[in-house]
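As a next step, the fold was encoded as C-alpha cells, giving this record:
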Amino acid sequence: MNRALRYVAVGTIAVSLLAGGSAAAFAAPQQLHSPTPVVATAPAAAALTAKASVTTVNAWQQFRISGTAKGIKTGTKVTVQQKQGTKWVSLPAQTPVNAGGTYAVRVKLGIKGVNQLRMAAGSTVSPVVKVTVR
C-alpha cells in the first residue's frame, strides 16, 4: 500500500510539471532544526552627564564641572557650552574623556546671574547645569 501511494505522489508531481505547474515541487525539505537566530546588538547610545562642584560663585572664580561619558571614545574632547540668549556658545574650556569614561574640567564665568551650562561632544549634549555668578 505504501508503494502505491509513492507511485501516485511521484506520478502527480510529474504530471503537474509536465502540465506547466510550478517548480515548488522541487523545493528543499524543511530543516528539522531551525538555525540559531542572530541577534545584532546596537551600539550604546552616546550620553553625557554633568555636575558642577558649586551652585554659586563670584565672578571669575574657578569651579569644576565633572561627569561621565557613555558610548563616547576615550580621548574625545568634551566642551563646556553656555546658553547666551537663545544660542549655545562653546567656551574655551574642554577636556578629554579618560579611560574610565569620566571627565572633569575647570571653568571660570564672568556673566553675572544664573548661567546655564552643558557639556558637548559632537552632537551629544548633557543635561543643563545652572551656576549663579554674583
